[in-house]
Fold each of these.
Amino acid sequence: MQQYVDYILTQLKALMAIDSPSGYTKEVTDYLMTQYKEMGYTPTKTVKGGVLVELGGEEKENALFMEAHVDTLGAMVAEIKADGRLRLTPIGGLNANNAEAENCRICTRFNGTYEGTMQLTDASIHVNGKYDDTSRTFDVMEVLIDEKVLSKKEVEDLGIMAGDVVCFEPRTTITKSGYLKSRFLDDKLSAAILMGYAKYLKEEKVCPKRALYQHFTVYEEVGHGGSASIPEGVTEVLSVDMGCVGKGLSCKEHQVSICAKDSGGPYNYDVVTDLITAAKRENLDYAVDIYPHYGSDAEAALRSGYDVRHGLIGPGVYASHGYERSHVDGVKNTFLLLRSYLG
């Protein structure tokens, strides 16, 4: 067991080191392709850019399709301002309050990458008497490029233009007490867990009763990651994403969360029941919760017309869409729930 947890944490750090806001995911999916080939699988890239892997299994007409997403929140240059600062538009649910004072990278299409910092416009407290009273939105925030530029033309001369992707520093760290802290644990933590499960199947020579697939999607944060690419014979879609931790919910970071309902409605009753049964069978530390503001790849599949059952699990993650926190015990419980549920 520990060898797979160690592998998951290694892959987590590797995935976190690759910038991948929605629509800018080629490097991270290339990495996944390489890793799965090294494990002995035959991954393919979908037309949309995701990674699809067949893991094996016997019942092809009752297959299960696991999904995790490797796209993250980010931003895009919306305007080069007259003073050489950049106005951004968010990609996905990036919140301006959580982006303030964060280091970032401006990835140009043709001229490399530049460093910068996201700040409130007129960010000097000794100068701006309205600093405390200003509501943080992307209309009053800007990126200061770490280059000697004071005009729109000087920025354009660097090769920066509207539509360039802006990636935020994840600041990944693993504490001695087992806490995992980073931006974008949603959902690279669960992506790493799926990688660990694939490694477990291969190394332990496990042949599941049901045929299993894994799909690493690249547009989940904008709502349509799981809306395509489900193979024939799949009857169930299991989204492995972050479990919500917060007021009114029972899940903690060291647990695996089983979602019964989110903003899109209830998950399949039988799938949720079977997930709870599998968690009880292994005496896992789990929680069942209802997520008030959440949507998943599994729901995207149903909205696209797929006739499948659907479920959602994941390690507990606190401070979602901000500087997030989970725990290695949440990783273990999620991995073991997959092992118990999938047989």
Amino acid sequence: MIGELAAGFAVGAVLGFLLKRSGLCFTGLAYEGVFQRQGSSLVLFFMAIAVEAVIYHGLGHAGLISIPSFLPPFSLVSVGLGSLLFGVGAVLAGGCLVSTLVKCGDGRVEGFATLAAFLVAGYSVSAGFALLVTVKLRSMLVVQDALPGRLGLLPLALALAAVVVLGLCVARRRKQVVSLARESQGAGPLFRLRRKAWTRERSVVVIGAVLGAAFLVSEQFGRSYGCAAAMPMLSWVFSVVPPDQVMGGCNPYDVVLGWGSGFVAGICFGSLLAAVASGAFRLVFPTAMELVGSVAGGLLMGCGAMWGAGCLLSNGLVGTAQFSAKSWWALLFLMGGIWLGGVIDRWIAKGREA
């Protein structure tokens, strides 16, 4: 148990550190892409998926990890509705659940408000008084989670092609910037750790690689799944308040304390480490409106992650790399929810100005 928690913690710490140092937020990339119509941001979002997919399917065909031959069926209604709500909540809260953990680590109090609201809502619909609603939604329009050629070489070939095409798009679209290597030439490792920002282009590639490598680490403990945040976060609550029945999340391993539990704790620690290393750690208290948005967003993400059987990380970035039909279906509604969240956020801003 301790070794499993420690392994997940280490991977989470690396991811949290990278996210904090790069300032990268995948909700932000999706928001820029679907609401602000910045195609370059969507290119970066899908680049992370493509890099992860290359590593995942490469490890699978090398026999280092197992690619499941069967994925559980899912409800088109539940996953669609849940993902839509999660997308709206992520915008209102200023980031998805992973971004919330990064905020907790670097001292932004709004992150704790979002996290508390998420845990209340998530527990209620997955194991509490609203469990019957989840059961009903999960039984509507159930289909098989299967994409043609998911177990063959086609996913690896498509992922490799996507990396090449998206890489060319990044090279053509990105602005002239001083490369990290040139900027830090002659400087020691501490200087590179303290840089105020890392380029988003390189960050998505490295983060995609971390998400892909996480499958190999997780596999060592019998957990044939990648990174997830929603159910692992709730596993800490379940360990204190054991439920009679649980329904929700994207895999059965994360209901109890284990690799995923350590992973989400590691994200907070990695963010804290990065903030301290750069001298950026400080307690930041939200305004009243920011607090309302954080709580509302957390409640929506809590319900959305359970009904959608995953969050922006597990469905939008990890499951899509596995060629899961459920995750690609969820990603459509996550993007739609992020767009709708942008509309609501703009409407609120106009109301405040008036």
